[in-house]
Amino acid sequence: MLLQSLWDFILGYNACLRSPFFPVLFSLSVYLTFCLPFVVLDLLSPRLAWIRTFKIQQKSHVSWTMMWSCLAHSLYNHVVFLFPLTVLHWFWRPASFTAEAPGTLRLIWDVVACLLLFDFQYFIWHLLHHKVPWLYRTFHKVHHKHTSTFALTTEYSGAWETLSLGFFAGVNPLLLGCHPLTEMLFYVLNIWLSVEDHCGYDLPWSTHRLVPFGLYGGAPHHDLHHLKFKSNYAPYFTHWDRLFGTLHKHSD
């Protein structure tokens, strides 16, 4: 009943959902909303010592210039690259929505499946773009400009990387036959986890502290990748790095 009520509420904005502007505005709005709390922490941390205790790299400092550079780069990618593609997709495959919401178990299963598939796709993409020097220099190096991560570095990447990850995230719900509500929730969760990965903070409620047995890497896992470059290629979970021998921890 809860999912149906939520879906009915969303369908009330049917005209917005069918707009060619919706996908880009939705993803950008969600992204900036999730970045905002960490931006506030970055601005307060130089003045409040207790905030700095949660920073992974406590000597790092995030300036307004760094934030603006990342934000401008992200806006540029959305306007110049993502928006034209979403318009083409809008013409090619107009949005259609069923009136019935998905079941709770099916929704959870599909979101987890999309997340695991994305984690695998990005691990392979990421590994290749570090192991092949030409791929790293040409496409991925820009994302490693900052060796100490902060939330707005999440989407500080070149066009090829932005489009590749957008493609993985967009195609997985289609491959798995997900309900549109499931697709939206997967996008929201995927954006949150990506921002959290880059936030630069190890907070008590962080996802990697909630998932047991070290199965999820989180911000410390990915921050170490930006610092060392040659480890921790999976974005979220740790099993692929364990299997390939590329998992490293701060204590290593």
From TrEMBL:
<keyword id="KW-1133">Transmembrane helix</keyword>
<protein>
    <recommendedName>
        <fullName>Fatty acid hydroxylase domain-containing protein</fullName>
    </recommendedName>
</protein>
<dbReference type="GO" id="GO:0016491">
    <property type="term" value="F:oxidoreductase activity"/>
</dbReference>
<dbReference type="InterPro" id="IPR006694">
    <property type="entry name" value="Fatty_acid_hydroxylase"/>
</dbReference>
<dbReference type="InterPro" id="IPR050307">
    <property type="entry name" value="Sterol_Desaturase_Related"/>
</dbReference>
<dbReference type="GO" id="GO:0008610">
    <property type="term" value="P:lipid biosynthetic process"/>
</dbReference>
<dbReference type="Pfam" id="PF04116">
    <property type="entry name" value="FA_hydroxylase"/>
</dbReference>
<feature type="domain" description="Fatty acid hydroxylase">
    <location>
        <begin position="111"/>
        <end position="246"/>
    </location>
</feature>
<feature type="transmembrane region" description="Helical">
    <location>
        <begin position="65"/>
        <end position="92"/>
    </location>
</feature>
<feature type="transmembrane region" description="Helical">
    <location>
        <begin position="107"/>
        <end position="128"/>
    </location>
</feature>
<dbReference type="GO" id="GO:0005506">
    <property type="term" value="F:iron ion binding"/>
</dbReference>
<keyword id="KW-0812">Transmembrane</keyword>
<keyword id="KW-0472">Membrane</keyword>
<dbReference type="GO" id="GO:0016020">
    <property type="term" value="C:membrane"/>
</dbReference>
<feature type="transmembrane region" description="Helical">
    <location>
        <begin position="20"/>
        <end position="44"/>
    </location>
</feature>
